[in-house]
Amino acid sequence: MVTVFMLVLVIVIFQRCIELVIARRNARYMKEAGGYEVAAGHYKWIVSLHVGFFISLISEVLLRVSTDSIPFYFWPFCVFCLAQILRIWSIRSLGHFWNTRIFVLDGKKPIVRGPYRYIRHPNYLVVFIEVGMLPLTFGAWKTALIFTVANAMIVSVRISAEEQALQKAYKYEAWMKEKGRFFPVRKQRE
User: Fold this and answer.
1) Cα distances (angstroms) measured from residue 117 to each of 79, 91, 101, 110
2) Helices 122-137 & 2-32 angle (0-180, nearest 10)
3) What is the pTM of this model?
4) pLDDT tens readout for residues 96-114
């Protein structure tokens, strides 16, 4: 099972590296188009959280190797894999506007296609799912618990900053008022 764990870990870390390349390319595009970054101060905490997450996951799982075998739980892994589909859909839907940082291009309309037709922050939903389900796949429940709470704290700051910037640049609330942050909202009948 160590081989399966390491293979999954390498694939996920490789995926993150590809996303960083995409984010840098998109940042360059946004800057060239007149866009600018906002609320950059909290980004170091997001990076620290993700690095800490992988260190904690590896440590918790590999410490079990000496005393026990590494479990593999199928259902959390399935949920994790489904979240990857939502991640790719989110990134593709935003195109040049997707980033790991917050970039704004004044005067543009917000993206309301793909999963953004239904919810405001599908990419953050994916991160919540990943931070919980990937560790649970390999029995690392402490990592899942600690980093789910830590992620919730950081993402609440991030979403607030992002929505403020988007409101200023795009009148975001007018476009997104009937969409929930993480789950679709049922429209009220009048």
Assistant:
1) 22, 14, 21, 11
2) 160
3) 0.87
4) 999 999 998 887 777 888 9
